[in-house]
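Narrative summary of target 7.
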Amino acid sequence: MAMTTADPKRPELGSDESIVQRVLSGERELYEVLVRRHNTRLYRAARAILRSENECEDVMQEAYVQAFAHLSQFRAEARFSTWLTRIAVHEALARRRRNQRQTEVEEPVVVITPEQEAGGRELVKMLERAIDALPDNFREVLILRTIEDMSVADTAAVLDVPEDTVKTRLFRARNQLREAIADSALAKSPAAYEFLAPRCNRIAAAVMERILKYGT
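Modeled conformation, tokenized:
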């Protein structure tokens, strides 16, 4: 389903919360706008927990479908983005726990995607490798706070930890990164874990195919 405007995130439609109300009123096709608005955040949240590109996309799809299924339970006193990210984080953590329970540990298959091939991103890839080497709980906080620029309160809510824990983990994560890479690499952090247009289109199409069939 093709969007009809130049900007697929449709800023003229207003806030996420107003779109949620329209989706609940029957305009299911508008759910694609929410998917496109939050693809990067959900990808980064899942990528903070999982190291597999394919699993990240699976987690994103499941999070969007779960959110749609429970959309009537969303309460506007919380931001939709926080509510949605929390669903994705819980799905990613559950998947990681399942993976850890497997008795066989297989060497991960490295797949170079077209998105990773785009441009000369050697410095950014160095940063991503350093972030991947962090302990899980440090990496989750670092990506949500520094790269995704979520507030301390929202990060704490998404990860179900106290705000002081978020601050402590972020402080320690930054210290570990400084030991691994030069400070100049940290300036490139907003470009880390990009979610480029081809992948965004793929996720949006897959989610909407499931959403438009939901309950039929």
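The mean pLDDT is 82.
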